[in-house]
Amino acid sequence: MTRNPYRTEKIAFFFLFLATLLIVVPVGLIVVIIIQKGLPAINWQFISDMPRNGMRSGGIFPAIAGTVYLVLGAVIFALPIGVLAAIYLSEYARENLLTRIIKLAIVNLAGVPSVVYGLFGLALFVVFFKFGASILSGSLTLGIMILPIIITASREAMESVPQTFREVSLSLGASKWQTIRHIVLPNAIPGIITGTILGIGRAAGETAPILFTVAAFYLPRLPKSIFDQVMALPYHLYVISTQVPNVEEKIRYGTALVLLAMVLITNLAAIVIRYKFRKKKKW
Fold first, then answer.
1. Using one digit for the tens of pLDDT, what is the confidence trace for 265-281?
2. I need a surface site. Which of 50, 170, 229, 245 has the fewest CB within 10 A?
3. What is the largest CA-CA distance in the chain?
4. Domains, the chain
């Protein structure tokens, strides 16, 4: 009995489509429920006001601002270090046992639970360096957490640039660094942006690292320096959902909707930037 390749292909497509549905449908339902239950709470007062009455009323502006501060601080710390590390691993480091161990360690660090990074940030930044529970401690902890993601994505983006580009640049008299600066990095920017997007999404939604290093339970004011505590949307959502009684359901879901919208807007902006850079590619 001969096997029909078209039937096998159809069966494979069916299971792939089924796997896609198993991912898309639950995620879509979650988004629909959050929008349906959270949209009634969304108004200008909810977004721009300080929380009142023990977070049972008012707005969530300090939590929004705190999340933005922490994510920006994490990216400012992690992006330059991540790109420089990726340049070294991709362009300068020789392929040997040590390099392979370093690359494997970076990939494994991306999968470490966030609570471990939180305890590390508590021990190093809060206690050892005596930064205290502050924006600085929280940003550095989140930066270290997203660093493996940025390094891995940036390195893969640089390694995807054709080797012939480097050879032509060097044959024309350009130095190694000039080749990296003017040839490799411009063509790797879409991949670097992708890694940054993934890092931002993880940093914005994590609770454990900021719980140990920066998050305040209730702080109805904006920070005055990087050594102040702040409220943050993930921890604020956890607090009003589990620790504060008699909070309206629409406030909880409204907070979740704002956090989801912030991540989506950031991702969309980065995707547009990445698309513009990809259009400039000649290969």
1. 888 887 888 787 777 76
2. 245
3. 77
4. 59-279 (1.10.3720.10)
